[in-house]
From TrEMBL:
It comes from the Bacteria. Signal peptide: none annotated. Pfam families: Dodecin. This is Dodecin domain-containing protein.
């Protein structure tokens, strides 16, 4: 039987929401083993001078505890 844990992570990117998600998973994988899934809970964007300047995601990362 596997025990799974879920953590909430915030990430941002100047490129896209997908890039922000990839950055979060890449960074989390540096300290977490056995990442199983990621759930994007919320998306938002910052606006500067009438243009989107930053894409933001609030996501949940699920990983197995050894």
């Amino acid at each position: 039987m596997a025990i799974l844990k879920v953590i909430e992570v915030l990430s941002s990117s100047e490129v896209s929401w997908e890039d922000a998600t990839r950055k979060a998973v890449t960074q989390a994988a540096k300290s977490l083993k056995n990442i199983r899934s990621v759930y994007v809970q919320d998306q938002s964007a910052a606006v500067k001078d009438g243009q989107v300047s930053e894409f933001r995601v609030n996501l949940k990362i699920t990983f197995e505890i050894e």
